[in-house]
Design a protein that fits this description.
This protein is mainly alpha-helical and 112 residues long. It has 5 helices and 2 strands, in the order αααααββ. Helix 3 crosses helix 4 and helix 4 packs across helix 5. The radius of gyration is 33 Å and the shape is elongated.
Length: 112
């Protein structure tokens, strides 16, 4: 019988200990989360790599966006459709202009 009493007492101590810690944790002042300021978009931009291979790929992106739209688009519209930046659209458009594949139409770009 003495063993059962000792076991009960030990169990009560184990159960009681977390309660005291929980009370201490609840009574402690809560730290407020500090919000980090969002980094400016300019800092997140990557440098545009200008070489023949990259310009060719961007030209393909621009051409595909214009071909699927089947109408004249602005630089911003092409960038949105192709999923590239406006700078990359301009790089690709320059390539296509030199090849004679696109032309200017009322301030927009259209396939030639």
């Amino acid at each position: 019988m003495a063993e059962k009493k000792a076991t009960k007492a030990a169990a009560e101590k184990k159960v009681a200990a977390p309660k005291k810690e929980a009370v201490k944790a609840a009574a402690a002042p809560k730290k407020e989360a500090v919000k980090k300021a969002a980094a400016p978009k300019a800092a997140k931009k990557e440098a545009l790599i200008i070489n023949a291979e990259n310009a060719g790929f961007k030209a393909g992106d621009v051409y595909q966006a214009l071909a699927t739209a089947e109408k004249a688009l602005t630089v911003a519209e092409i960038a949105k459709k192709a999923g590239i930046s406006e700078q990359e659209v301009i790089l690709g458009a320059g390539w296509l202009l030199k090849e004679g594949k696109i032309k200017d139409f009322e301030g927009k770009i259209v396939l030639a």
